[in-house]
Specification:
Largest sheet: 9 strands, mixed
Number of domains: 2
CATH architecture of the largest domain: 3-Layer(aba) Sandwich
Oligomer: single chain
Low-confidence stretches: none
Shape: globular
């Protein structure tokens, strides 16, 4: 096969020529997270003064692409579906607006006809001999967005891995292709996203969570230092499956060793299913053209009806805080968005509807060097609740595991106080008596 450029014909253009299709007042979608075409985005940001009233929809930025500045905000509106370190300060400054979503319905709830997607910017692998490009190690809603957009501009990244499932798009569906203009500044996804190496507290919580995982379980593992630490404790488990939004670092060695083999999965047996890989170099090399791993769009992986078909599903997700009724806050610090909705609620509901399913919420007992309890009497005014109390099952801190399912309000409070940091238990009991049984 010749160079990939030879099969593109007049679709292969310069970045400058590709961006000429954008007009003032249009809506421009950008691939989420590692699907963002870095050099297309930087060129767009450099010329932002050429457009007025431009709307950009993206999210989970792995670095500052140039949009998140007061100057950029004067020319455009940025709506992000997931807040990361590059966008947190910009959001508080008013340069970024958060777009809540139902991951299983994204993006059709937004692109419903009232807000047409004019242009979509995406990163893809070079087309293969059949004309198909891969979205690499992340899919999210890239295929849906490309299918909805009037014009699709793809930045070709020769370093992209190729993965299976529905993680591909044909050259005929792309209007323009541009070449990547240098080396990407992206590194390991987990580290760029701010997930640090787990602490001893994280590992203690992870051990408790791993004790709830049975041989033969299908797993969903959410993003976060604590939940991803669970993976370290799965090397003694057998015949596990994976149906998850994310496939975090550490899963690939478990697939290679046979701990995760999907033997008992009712759907996609013997396949690890996700919509995005968060991995180191070994994980990405392992996933490249590996039929054991398949990527599907978010509307497929995060659909609670599909999740619930997995008997013995264990879903493990992080929380920032939980109140004594069991309400989980996992995405915001009071009203200030810290991350995003993600698939936590959908996988929690799916696990609770699955036969023998378990939904597990993990969090350290304290924050800010032990000065604040993450178990609180009531969430502060304006706090965003990610998971309602009626769907909260197991809760784990470094002080143990409790099961809130079927428990009364008073019982829930007593159980949660029992796994709070000892320094805060008396205060929580006093508050609980005042609030819940005066």
């Amino acid at each position: 096969m010749g160079r990939w450029q030879d099969v593109c014909g007049d679709k292969l253009v310069s970045i400058e020529d590709a961006l000429q299709v954008i007009r003032p007042g249009q809506t421009v979608g950008i691939g989420v997270n590692a699907n963002a075409p870095e050099f297309l985005c930087r060129a767009l940001a450099e010329r932002i003064q050429d457009w007025d009233d431009l709307e950009i929809i993206g999210g989970a930025a792995m670095h500052d692409l140039g949009f998140y500045t007061p100057q950029g905000a004067s020319h455009l509106t940025v709506r992000d579906i997931f807040i990361t370190a590059p966008t947190r300060l910009a959001m508080r400054a008013g340069s970024v607006d958060f777009l809540p979503l139902n991951a299983a319905r994204w993006p059709c709830d937004v692109l419903d006809g009232s807000r047409p997607l004019d242009v979509y910017l995406i990163s893809v692998s070079p087309p293969d001999e059949h004309g198909y490009c891969s979205f690499g190690f992340m899919l999210w809603a890239s295929l849906d967005m490309a299918e909805s957009a009037k014009v699709v501009i793809a930045e070709v990244d020769e370093d992209h891995i190729v993965t299976y499932g529905e993680n591909y798009i044909h050259l005929s569906q792309l209007d323009y292709l541009v070449e990547k203009q240098g080396e990407s500044t992206l590194g390991d996804v987990a580290s760029v996203m701010g997930y640090e190496a787990p602490s001893e507290v994280d590992r203690t919580i992870a051990r408790y969570a791993a004790d709830l995982i049975r041989d033969g379980d299908s797993l969903q593992i959410g993003a976060g230092t604590v939940s991803m630490a669970v993976i370290e404790h799965l090397h003694g488990k057998n015949d596990l499956g994976l149906h998850s939004e994310l496939c975090p670092t550490g899963v690939a060695p478990l697939i290679a060793a046979g701990n995760i083999n999907g033997k008992f999965k009712p759907l996609h047996r013997h396949k690890a299913i996700c919509t995005a890989l968060m991995g180191d170099e070994f994980s990405l090399d392992f996933a490249h053209r590996n039929p054991a791993i398949e990527l599907y769009r978010m509307s497929y992986t995060n659909n609670p009806l599909r999740i619930a078909q997995h008997d013995y599903l264990t879903a493990i997700n992080n929380a920032l805080s939980i109140d004594l009724t069991g309400q989980v806050a996992a995405e915001a610090l009071e009203p200030h968005m810290y991350s995003g909705v993600g698939g936590q609620l959908e996988f929690t509901i799916g696990a609770m509807l699955a036969d023998h399913g378990r939904a597990v919420t993990v969090l350290p007992a304290t924050a800010k060097q032990g000065t604040l309890s993450r178990i609180v009497p009531l969430h502060a005014e304006g706090t965003v609740v990610s998971v309602p109390r009626t769907y909260v099952n197991y809760v784990i801190t470094e002080y143990g595991t409790v099961n809130l399912l079927g428990k009364s309000q008073r019982e829930r409070a007593e159980l949660l106080i029992s796994i709070a940091h000892p320094d805060f238990r008396d205060g929580l009991r006093t508050a609980a008596k005042r609030l819940y049984w005066p």
